[in-house]
Write a structure and sequence with these properties.
By secondary structure, this protein is of the alpha/beta class. It contains ten helices and ten strands. It has helices at residues 46-53, 76-82, 99-109, 113-118, 123-135, 151-163, 181-194, 207-213, 231-235, 238-244, and strands at residues 6-17, 20-31, 35-39, 61-66, 69-70, 84-87, 169-173, 199-203, 216-221, 224-229. The chain is globular. The chain starts with 5 loop residues before the first strand and ends in a 9-residue tail after the last helix. 38% of the residues are buried. The protein binds adenosine-5'-triphosphate. The site of adenosine-5'-triphosphate (ATP) has 10 residues, from α1. This is Urea ABC transporter ATP-binding protein UrtD. Residues 8-247 form the ABC transporter domain.
Length: 253
């Protein structure tokens, strides 16, 4: 549930690759406790938004404020420490470690590699890992090798690995790519449950899924915000239909 407090403000941000503007004077903001979904046709700048928030890509101009702090020029690890976690599309679990070992490693990553490898698990960390294991529905598989999990389970483990580091905002790029129908349904429930812990910003193409999970939807086009609002409002907007027209996603919108 949103607290009404702003958590993220992207103000007039531009990012260029050579002469191409991936973000073009973008303005975008989110409230704490919100699950926002960003949609838009291919090349609209959605992934670049996540890259620039998480410090992977530098803004050419403009400002990004998180939780009231200017993070525009911070390095990616500093941004993680400030409380922005990111789940990438590509898998990054350690396949030979167990599910719970992956979570333990992720919980300690913030404290540095040596701490991650040598520190004992404290009771608070154990409690948090158990809580996350229940949430991602992998409690009974806690001792199983992560490499042997099904695709959907690996994706949930990765979400869990971000969650144990206690972010205030989680960025998630296309969470249901390659999932079965039942995995998709479970992921929708999981993303909504994340709101008990952090705000969530998701990029997604699948409109049925967007309808199911989003509090608000932001539509990007050519590196800028075209419009935003409830799923139904955005879907009924002629400008949104126009930018999707003729694209593969338009067929599903
Ligand atoms: N590192 C890069 N170097 C050069 N061009 C890039 C780079 N990253 C992104 N771009 C370009 O910037 C534009 C916006 O890309 P971005 O990945 O943000 O779009 P998107 O909305 O996420 O698209 P998609 O839905 O296809 O993932 C694209 O035209 C892309 O080719």
């Amino acid at each position: 549930m949103s607290t009404g407090q702003s958590i993220l403000e992207v103000h007039d941000v531009s990012v260029s690759f050579d002469k191409f503007k991936a973000l073009d004077h973008l303005n975008f903001s989110m409230l704490e406790g919100e699950l926002r979904v960003v949609i838009g046709p291919n090349g609209a700048g959605k992934t670049t938004l996540l890259d620039v928030i998480s410090g992977r890509t530098r803004a050419d101009s403009g400002q990004i404020r998180f939780n009231g702090q200017d993070i525009t020029r911070m390095a990616d690890f500093q941004i993680v420490r400030r409380g922005i976690g990111r789940k990438f599309q590509a898998p990054s679990v350690f396949p030979d470690l167990s599910v719970s070992e992956n979570l333990a490693l992720a919980a300690r990553r913030k404290r540095g590699v040596l701490a991650a490898l040598f520190q004992r698990r404290d009771p608070e960390e154990t409690r948090r890992i158990n809580e996350v294991l229940e949430l991602i529905d992998l409690g009974r598989l806690r001792d199983q090798r992560a490499g042997s999990l099904a695709h959907g389970q690996k994706q949930w483990l990765e979400i869990g690995m971000v969650l144990v580091s206690r972010p205030r905002l989680m960025l998630i790029d296309e969470p249901i790519a390659g999932m079965t129908a039942s995995e998709v349904a479970r992921t929708a429930g999981l993303l909504r449950q994340l709101l008990g812990f952090c705000s969530v910003l998701v990029i997604e193409h699948d409109m049925n899924f967007v309808r199911e999970i989003a509090d608000r939807v932001s539509v990007f086009h050519q590196g800028a915000l075209l419009t935003e609002g409830s799923f139904d409002r955005v879907r009924a907007d002629d400008r949104v239909r126009a930018v999707y027209l003729g694209t593969e996603e338009g067929a599903h919108a």
